[in-house]
Design a protein that fits this description.
Length: 40
């Protein structure tokens, strides 16, 4: 069980949070709000 936990923890340590934040910041939220605005 500890070996599985070590693998999971190593995956999370390699997980690039900054890349995801950058991806979200570059994401076009205005396009989504336009779609939502068109629905209502």
């Amino acid at each position: 069980m500890d070996a599985v936990l070590d693998i999971i923890m190593s995956l999370f340590s390699d997980f690039d949070v900054n890349a995801i934040i950058e991806m979200l910041s570059n994401f076009d939220f205005s396009a989504i709000t336009d779609v939502i605005g068109g629905l209502f």
